[in-house]
Amino acid sequence: MEKRFVPAYNYPEMAEQKIPRYIAIEGPIGVGKSSLAKLLSQKFDSRLIREEVANNPFMERFYESPKKYAFQTQLFFLLSRYRQQRELAQGDLFQEGIVCDYIMAKDKIFALINLEEDEIMLYESIYKLLVPTLAKPDLVIYLQARSEVLLSRVRKRGVDYERNISLDYLKTLSDAYNEYFFHYNETPLLIVNTSEIDFVESSRDLEHLIKEVKSVKRGVQHYIPLGSR
After folding, report:
1. Residue 36's CB: how many other CB atoms inside 10 A?
2. Which of 30, 44, 131, 200 has the lowest CB atom count within 10 Å?
3. Helices (H), strands (E): how many in the chain?
4. Predicted TM-score of the model (pTM)
5. At what angle do helices 117-130 and 66-90 cross, to 10 degrees?
6. CA torsion sign, 146 to 149 to 155 to 158?
């Protein structure tokens, strides 16, 4: 399997193979965040933290009527994620490894896509009060994939309330994620294109990815696999 690795920075200390203590994984719907978070937590013997999607009572109604239920859905997610992150910070967050399948900024990305202008103003005022108080990851992994690949993966997992997700929505979401991470500089960042690999089914793909995770020290790195098939 041929792979191409394009580092944005080439620091000597990247040769050290150490595991970041707090890893967060982000990316659009269907890209494999939860799957990778579970695999890394097992490999690194770390605590797995998942976002509480199933507990959002507005989720199914949002996909049926986005404009009507966008604000309720987004506010529930913001408060739920904030509570979860605060509980981590008050516990033994740095006494054990953590792998989380989201970052708080995802909330804002979705809000800017789905909310009306007046709703965004109210949302922003709440967001600015809550988010700056939370701990930042030692490493963020941003997973990318082509929109057609995302749609295929969403359809394959067969979640009932996701049946109305369109290719256009996934394209809009992917563009928003790309724009956000193009300017991201809060933590070390590893950008991984997953369109041509399957780290769930291929142990080789997973091991290559883990090697890149261990190599990141600071700045931005791009990992562009050419595919396992």
Report:
1. 25
2. 200
3. 8, 7
4. 0.85
5. 0
6. negative
Q: Report pLDDT digits (tens) over 7-22.
A: 343 334 433 457 788 9
The token pair at 31 is 């890209």
Average pLDDT of span 1-6? 39
pLDDT for the residue numbered 13: 41
CA distance 134 to 170: 29
Q: Which residues are catalytic?
A: 101
Beta strand segments in the chain, E: 3-7, 22-26, 47-49, 98-100, 139-144, 189-193, 220-225
CA angle 82, 99, 151 (to 5 degrees): 85
Give, in order, the Cα–Cα distances in Å from 185 to each of 12, 18, 20, 65, 111: 20, 21, 17, 35, 21
- Contact assessment for residue 229 and residue 194, using Cβ atoms and an 8 Å cutoff: no
Give the sign of the dihedral formed by CA 50, CA 56, CA 59, CA 62. negative
